[in-house]
Write a structure and sequence with these properties.
The chain has five helices and no strands. The protein is mostly helical and 106 residues long. It folds into two domains: 29 residues, no CATH class; 47 residues, no CATH class.
Length: 106
């Protein structure tokens, strides 16, 4: 069977204990609870829609900690805002002083 004997022993023991139906049952892992509750997400969406917005994802992390007491990692906030909410921050990226303003406006 190309399996280690310890694996076969474990399978046989499980078969004896739970039978064929229990042995063939596919178990799924429980879903993890969301770290950011729905109220905080709704408030974040409203805040992102305002003209002020946020200057960085770190600012969102600090805002969530201050307003809702949530200690959320930067990567989690980035994934939520960028991919799940589909939002972009409202701060323009710095531009070179060497750019030709006429070409940029076109």
């Amino acid at each position: 069977m190309a399996r280690d004997t310890s694996t076969l022993t474990r399978w046989l023991q499980k078969y004896r204990n739970v039978g064929l139906s229990g042995f063939l049952e596919i178990k799924k892992a429980a879903k993890a609870k969301r770290k950011i509750n729905d109220d905080a997400i709704a408030a974040l969406i409203q805040e992102l829609k305002t003209r002020k917005g946020f200057s960085s994802y770190g600012g969102i992390v600090e805002w969530l900690k201050k307003e809702y007491g949530l200690d959320i990692e930067y990567g989690t906030v980035y994934a939520l805002v960028r991919y799940r909410l589909g939002a972009k921050l409202k701060v323009p990226h710095p531009q070179s002083y060497k750019q030709n303003e006429k070409l940029v406006s076109e």
